[in-house]
Amino acid sequence: MYSPSPPPVAASNAYVYLNHHQQLASNPYASRTQSHPVGGLGNAASLNDMSLVGGVASANGAGSAGAPPSASYGHASQLGATRYDNANMSWMSRYPARQAHLAQGASGASSLASLPPSLGHAVSAGVPSSPGYSAAMASSPHLMMATGMSPATPRTQPRASAASSTVGTSPEWQQQMYCAEISRQSFSPHHHARAAALAARSSVSAGQDPKKSIQLPAGAAANGLSFPLAPDAGKAGDESISGISASPSKPAGLRTASSKSDEGDAEQSWSIIDMGGLNLKNIGLEVFRYTFLTSLFINHNSLTTLSPAIVQLRNLSILDASGNKLVMIPPELGMLTELKALFLFDNCLTVLPPELGTLYQLEMLGIEGNPLQENLLSIIQHDGTPALIAFLRDSCPVSVPPPEREWIAIETDVPSGENDTETTFAVLSYNVLCEKYATPQMYGYTPGWALVWDYRKEFILQEIMSYSADICCLQEVEMGQYEEYFEPKLKQSDYEGIFWPKSRARTMREDERRHVDGCATFFNSRIFRLVDKQLIEFNQIALQRPDFKKTEDIFNRVMTKDNVAAIAMLEHRATGAKLLVANAHMHWDPEFRDVKLVQSAMLMEQLESIGNRFAKMAPQTKLENGASPPKYASGKQIPMVICGDFNSTPDSGVYEFLSQGETPPDHQDFMDHTYGTYTSEGLRHDYALRSAYHNIGELPITNYTPGFRGAIDYIWYSSNTLANSGLLGEVDPAYLARVVGFPNAHFPSDHVCILAEFKVKPPKPESSR
């Protein structure tokens, strides 16, 4: 029986092709389907008896891992029994045309995915200009056949687009035609898998160790074939969040070390399925359970639709559905944001769903041979795939907004009373994504109108005001926007604020400084009074530590990061109670998780010093009826809240340090770097910190992009002085399942705001010693 869990296959080049002639043993309709191929693994192929034949994983069980390469490719018995008249002849000898065709595939010739990285290939009436084509190959029998015709499965002449014969001057359209010609020559059954098998055998014949997998260049599919890449693609570090590519503040990959899921994916021995040229009329849903697939070839079949279940294949980078009878494609394809090549040549498509506009990494959309409507065809003919994707993205209708986030009340051990309003306050933390970092290059999936700052800033302000938090900690606020927009707008609602930009602003001209982002803290001036404020510059604090001066890592790793934290010392106007509020934004790069840990340790050391100084300050509030404000023997007795974007997930060293109060000197996040006593004695702080969401579990996401989805924003509080009484819940999971990432029309930043309510606990007397 078919198992939903894909069985492991010890393949060296991660390729599997499905033979539609092999039926499942339990298939009650086997006698009816033996000579009529149908799609899907459920009644088309059995993957339980996969084996390796010449380094290619097949699905018919006829070969074995130790068997030498044979002309039958492990399935000559099925081919001879079900499709070909002469069962005594091998597949290769029966069709010399295909033999020559596959020989070219093995030598790097005609293959849809074997495309050069440039767009400068001329298209002629004969053979496409490609390094893979030689004069000898140009006379190959398979090139003499009519385009799109197969000796095994005759097809009609491919459908041509309206202007395909007249438009060919732009480099973009030349590349389109080049790809289309190669696609039409990939009509034979399992073309890509067979070409990969021959390529693997050729490499062994050339002396390569057969026990080692074939080393493929950047952009190469696991079958040994490749697709066009951008000039910088494939370089080390291009898996970089908040979207697509790394920036000084917004990384595009994982925020922390490699995840466990990545390790699990590395164990998967095959990631490509070739079901091309089989005359399939539908694809079984079982195929879409293989969520690890990176390439899917279903070209040259008889498909009229694609199942929306294809949305499960989130890791696909190549999808080839050319040479079918598709009249429409599902909007769910827009969720496959890893796609770099989508080939739909020679179908019946007249329109494209605007949801495809979120395919921001798509480098080639193959639509030649479709009766596409004129406006779409004109865009791609003159400006290429990126222009068409941008048009679809910006013209896509706005989806239904998500339901309001739920407010979660939490029971506390603090007794309720008539003065609850004086002892209760709410804190909001929000990374607003400053204008400088919100570029189309980084957020290519976001409609242009939803990415502009004028739209987003109004949305952000509205969101802040709607929650009516008493304290608002904002990160990534540009200095100019703080002075010209946030500070005057929030002042109208009785908020006062403090702001500090990143350290780099001190060495810049005034016009440049206004675009430097930093941390802004606003508080309700009717409730709190600002007693004092202080800036923490982590790179400057590091210089002041004698034990740090002897380590090169401080100068090479910590000193080059100019992150800051803004500290506000507040006093409650009605009770005189003090409150310490920290607003921090840690470094983003996952390769510098040691720096995040060092920054967090320095933050806690500074807060202890600031808190002790704050405790000694005389109260500035005169209470009615001669009441005395609370007194604090040390900073640890003052209620404290730490908000910010820590760029660290709950399994990180930063989270462990803040929540548990200590980190061993050999913690893996230090990565063998040296930081004085931090790495010789470990980290420690004496505050009983808890994350506000500790009681219900951290939110599934506070940052949501195609490259990263997880919790990295937190509100920490001193649990000995404060009790958490309420939280803002998560974003609707059903909504998240249908959007590729933030920002979008409903969320103005790549982060979501988090909100917590606290009650001040009655002061406890200092224990006598």
From TrEMBL:
It catalyses: Exonucleolytic cleavage of poly(A) to 5'-AMP. It is found in: Cytoplasm; Nucleus. Residues 149-170, 233-266 are annotated as: Disordered. Keywords: Cytoplasm, Exonuclease, Hydrolase, Leucine-rich repeat, Magnesium, Metal-binding, Nuclease, Nucleus, Repeat, RNA-binding, Transcription, Transcription regulation. InterPro entries: CCR4/nocturin_mRNA_transcr, Endo/exonu/phosph_ase_sf, Endo/exonuclease/phosphatase, Leu-rich_rpt_typical-subtyp, LRR_dom_sf. The keyword Methyltransferase does not apply. Residues 153-170 have a biased composition (Polar residues). Its cofactor is Mg(2+). One of its GO terms (molecular function) is poly(A)-specific ribonuclease activity. This is CCR4-Not complex 3'-5'-exoribonuclease subunit Ccr4. It comes from Malassezia obtusa. The lineage of its organism: Eukaryota, Fungi, Dikarya, Basidiomycota, Ustilaginomycotina.
